[in-house]
Amino acid sequence: MAPRSRQRSSTPLQVLLFLNGWYSATYFLLEAFIFVYKVLLLPYPVTNLVLDLALLLLYLGTEATRIFFGSKGNLCQRKVPLSISLALTVPAAVMAAYYLLLQTYALRLEAILNAILLLFYAVELPLGILALVSFSSVESY
């Protein structure tokens, strides 16, 4: 009789990744509209605008990759994709902190949006580490 495999994927982590995916899509749409607003109403230097938009596109790619690998690693109980997701959490948090503190013009709405993103990262990181530890304790046959 074959041993029963135990489900070790983390439901709270999966729920957070799902919600973060929807929140990130909303976040990037709002950021695009906010950049249009800033360009039209504020004296935005062109070089700073290009830098902020390039970082936003890089952030979009990083966040989509992080959520994809986190979800697949958690559901398939694989260490490598989950590790990639956890590693990408650090640059994603740095970019959220940049948009919170260091961009040319930071609106109050952007501060709130980025603080929520940082909260997602702060909760997902320990849950991801716990899931990774759980996957590492599984014996492979």
Please, could you describe this protein's structure?
The structure is a single chain. The protein is mainly alpha-helical and 141 residues long. Helix content is 80%, strand content 0%. The chain has helices at 11-41, 46-75, 79-101, 108-136. The two termini are 14 Å apart. The model has no long low-confidence stretch (mean pLDDT 90).
- Strand content is under 5%
Described by its quaternary structure, the protein is single chain
SSE string, helices as H and strands as E: HHHH
Largest sheet at a glance? none
Provide mean pLDDT, rounded: 90
What overall geometry do the principal axes of the alpha carbons give? elongated
Q: Would you identify the regions where 5 or more consecutive residues have pLDDT less than 50?
A: none
Strand element count: 0
Rg from alpha-carbon coordinates: 18 Å
List strands and helices in order, with pairings.
Blueprint: H1 11-41, H2 46-75, H3 79-101, H4 108-136
Key terms:
elongated, 4 helices, 80% helix
Please sum up the structure shown.
With 141 residues, this protein is an all-alpha fold. 80% of the residues lie in helices and 0% in strands.
